[in-house]
Amino acid sequence: VVDETDGSGTDTVRSSVISISLLDTAHVKGAIENAVLDGALDAHAAAVAAVLLLLSLLVLRTWRDFLPLVLALALQTVLGALGFLLVPVEVAWAPREVHGFWAPVFHGADVMNLERNYLPSLHVAFACTAALALGERGGRLARAGFGLWALAIAASTLLIHEHHLVDALAGALLAGGTWRVVAPWARRPDVLEAFRLEALCVREMARFSRRHPRYLLAALGLYRYALPDWSATRVGRTGFCFLQLVDDVLDGDRPVAGEPLDWVDTLLVRLGEPPVPGEAPAVTLGRAFLAGLR
Fold first, then answer.
1. Handedness of CA 281, 287, 292, 293 (dihedral sign)
2. Which of 137, 170, 199, 293 reaches 20 to 30 Å from 158, CA-CA?
3. How far apart are alpha carbons 159 and 18 in whole angstroms?
4. Averaged pLDDT for residues 174-184
5. For the CA atoms of the chain, what is the radius of gyration?
6. Considering the entire predicted model, what is its pTM?
């Protein structure tokens, strides 16, 4: 039901249906304007996109499977932010009015949406990327299903007047381009090992910092030093974490099974042996440190 009695140029919806005005010949021919939805549909559209991303937690079981998706989404966020700065567009739709129970939800989401962040549509980019990542885990039917889901999300951004067609197309191109580049790179064994080492370093530095704040300053200094060449300076991070871990064990600050000296002797023996899957973090960090010194 559409109420046009206020004369403001805004069609107000009193129920959960789409209202469509007459075509305005001053705009692009065929464009459907002034469609205003109830706030519930706006919230539901955002929830559908979130569900598609959350579904990846069930389909992608290991961090190695999850890494390409995370890196692709991160890169899209950075490129999208650059796009928002370079092309700060606004939608041409009339202002929306929302009434009823969902009005506070809609207005809260509208505030968080900020302004001039339309081209490209990150809703569409994230949905298409999730569909690509999840579709790879299944057969032809799964790919078709996730593709239709992403297409429905893209259509919803148009129907609720969150984006124009060019925004959605740009988001889809952004998803396809970044996934084509990032996914193969993030699956390389050397890249996966580098991320595993960095994650171990972050975990150990966090443990050191919880014990004393001075280790936090040391960690920040190491990461600041790493900015010019992240890979070349990894030996400094692995070395710091490995040596500090051994020092903590010898000082009694890191409990281990058995005597600390026996633990260190066993560690040194393991470092001289071929690597095996599931090694302890100390062995992994020690191997990376020694390899970086060569």
1. positive
2. 137
3. 8
4. 95
5. 26
6. 0.71
